[in-house]
Structures are given as C-alpha cells and as structure tokens.
C-alpha cells in the first residue's frame, strides 16, 4: 500500500497523517488517516462501512456514528484545500466513495542500490518514473518509518491492555509504569503513564472534563504522543498518535463519552 498521495495540489502523507500544500497543513488522527488511505486506494469505487471500520479500527468494534464523525472531520480538513468540491461522497446505507479523477500516488520501494544512490519508483497519473535519492535521505526515510512503526505498536499494545484490564489493573501494569486517579463531576479517570513521564497540567485538566469512567494511557515518543483510552461504560476505546504541537487541540475534540 502506498505512503504518499498527491490529490491535485495537495500532498497526503499517510504515515504522518498530514495533508499539506505550499501554504498550510492539516493533521489527521491515526484513525482518520487510515480511512482516507483506504478511500484513496479505492478511489472512485464504493467502500462499504464495514470495510472502512475494519481497516481503520482493526480489532475494535465501533458504531456507524463513530465512522460518520471521522468522515466528517476528514471532509472538514479537505475543505480547507477544496472549498467548492465534495470529494468524499456518501452512498446511503452502503458506504462512501472518494470521487477524484486525477490523483497521483507515490510509493517508496527499494529497487537498486549502489554506493551513491537508491532508485525509488514514483507512480504518477502520467506513468511510472524513477527518482534517485541520496543514501542519507533513504536512511532518514527508514528512521522515520521505524519511529512511526514503534508508535503504532506501543499504541496497539496499550489499547489491547485496556480491553483485557480488570478492576485491579495495577497488578498488571509494568513496573516502569504508574497509575493515577482523577475524580471530577462524579466521574473517575485512571491514567497509566511511564513513571518518569510528567503529565502536563493542561492535559490533566482536559482529561478530567471527559464525562466517562475511563482508563487512559499516555506516553511520549519523540515529538509524538501515544494516547489510548477505554470507556468502561461502553466497553469501547481507541488508540491515537497525536502530534505534540496539536495535542491539546486534538484531545479537546475527542468525544469519548459518545464512543
């Protein structure tokens, strides 16, 4: 599956969940990025709701309402670049279709290697071309890929912990982690974090306002946060990878009590 997509003048990096052009950037959540990736891979074809939910949430059971809200957020981000176009069409009671006639997709793969360069094929709507990149750039691509993979694996393991976590959860937490409880407005929130990680007070305040009896897991890797939550009232949850610059904004957007 490809990693970079060119939607007319807009670039979409599916690894970073980043939409960008020469003027601005829009950061998608991990789930939103997965949804847009599948729609791009199947552009101009109808993708069913079940396919989208399975691909984006994988081992988590979610409602159509969660899918609808995520699609709405993607549309909102795309409208920044295409204010007069409805790129994602709704197919009533079936799913969604990404209507786009001209979209070029670039995928980074290792083809040839010598002492000076690596040849990577770039697939575009006008045909296949080859682009030479210095070894230094290749190492940077690999380094970023490994960072994203480690973040995804940590988030996934944290979410699976929540799915099986009993009430006496502290007995199952690694010795390198600690758990704290926050009570507010009749709701109790349990936060699991690395012992050496200090949660910023503004993040605690945002989590305390969530109207649910939830378990949160938060960790920081580089300039990204691994954030997972599990709603004890609905037995549902989600794992996200959030950029540090947009962390506060993205946490405020999450409607955990509605999941």
Description:
With 259 residues, the chain is α+β, with helices and mostly antiparallel strands. Helices cover 32% and strands 34% of the residues. It is built from 6 helices and 16 strands. It has helices at residues 30-41, 49-57, 64-79, 135-164, 201-208, 247-253; strands at 4-7, 10-13, 18-20, 25-27, 46-48, 88-91, 95-98, 103-106, 112-113, 117-124, 127-134, 177-184, 187-194, 214-221, 224-231, 236-243. Strands 4-3-2-1-8 form a 5-stranded antiparallel sheet, with no helix packed on it. Strands 12-13-14-15-16 form a 5-stranded mixed sheet, with helices on both faces. It has a 3-stranded antiparallel sheet with strand order 5-7-6. Strand 1 and strand 2 form a beta hairpin.
Please render the helix and strand layout as text.
Layout: E1 4-7, E2 10-13, E3 18-20, E4 25-27, H1 30-41, E5 46-48, H2 49-57, H3 64-79, E6 88-91, E7 95-98, E8 103-106, E9 112-113, E10 117-124, E11 127-134, H4 135-164, E12 177-184, E13 187-194, H5 201-208, E14 214-221, E15 224-231, E16 236-243, H6 247-253
Parallel strand pairs: 13-14
Antiparallel strand pairs: 1-2, 1-8, 2-3, 3-4, 5-7, 6-7, 9-10, 10-11, 12-13, 14-15, 15-16
Helix pairs in contact: 1-2, 1-3
